[in-house]
Amino acid sequence: MTPYPSLPSSHNGLKAFEAAARLMSFTLAADELHVTQSAISRQIKQLEDELSASLVVRKHRAIELTPQGHDLYRVLRESYGNIEAVMASWKDPKQKRIVIKATLSFATRVLISKVRELNERYPDYEIVIVPVIEEDEAINSSEYDLLIFHTRFKKRYDNAPDITFLREEFMAPVCSTNVITEDTDLTSILTMPRIHPTLDHHDWKVWLTDVESPPKKPVRNTSFLSLDMALSACLSGEGVTVTDLLLVLKELQRGFLYCPEHAKLQHSAWTYYIHQRTHTPVIDDIIDWLREETAKEIELLKQLALQYHWSGVIKAQD
């Protein structure tokens, strides 16, 4: 009698299901396993029939996991990870690396400032930080341990496998302290030249919808098509931009950037998530550390909000 009577007779179905559940795509699973999409679909259907359980909800160009599918994927992920670790230990040792991909603005404005701490926390690893532009597309690649991305498609990633919510954005206008005077207030800030990281001026439009009396006089607009360029222009005194205050927290603390008193903070349409590609205790620890660091940054933002009487969504975090 077999010691594992509930296991399916063929492991191909388990392998096909694990790849499809991890990539959330029959097409990508087929590419990874070098078979056809129909073969993936057929193997998973045979697995479902043998287990007498529904594992996948098939939708047009998308799939979702059922509760049983989530349970099975979680166990397979851990088991395959353990097998991979054992087999990798048989090979000649190589220099260990932790590859973190992140949206460009997060990589340059957050992760760079944390490199020293990462090196101290993980002295046996080389830390590799890779900036990405198309985050939603990067999630389908396999060349990273962690991907920190922000997206407008919140519903797509909530409760998805291997996805961890990190934070919302906290949007408000900022300008260089070099261009403000004792009389500078929220009203005068709104008459300054406006700097935009996108051609559609989306951040400014959304933020101005909450302003009780937006200025009627036309203002100068300049677009840079990059948040980092927009912030550089802002820091050099070229105007005012609406941005995520957590990305410029150090500049606000050190007095390089100014957010006017009584400004209203808003969430944007974008949300930050973490996608975990590699499942090891070290990567689990990095995720916990990133969440702890983010919580500390939000606390610092709350203190600044109290000091400068900022209102809005920051209060909702209390």
From TrEMBL:
InterPro entries in alphabetical order: LysR-type_TF_proteobact-type (IPR058163), LysR_HTH_N (IPR000847), LysR_subst-bd (IPR005119), WH-like_DNA-bd_sf (IPR036388), WH_DNA-bd_sf (IPR036390)
UniProt family annotation: Belongs to the LysR transcriptional regulatory family.
Alphabetical GO biological process terms: DNA-templated transcription
Residues in HTH lysR-type domain copies: 12-66
A Pfam family: HTH_1
Upper classification of the organism: Bacteria, Pseudomonadati, Pseudomonadota, Gammaproteobacteria, Vibrionales
Keyword Repeat: no
Gene Ontology molecular function terms on file: DNA-binding transcription factor activity; sequence-specific DNA binding
Name assigned to this protein: LysR family transcriptional regulator
Top-rank lineage group of the source organism: Bacteria
Keywords attached to this entry: DNA-binding, Transcription, Transcription regulation
Keyword presence, Heme: no
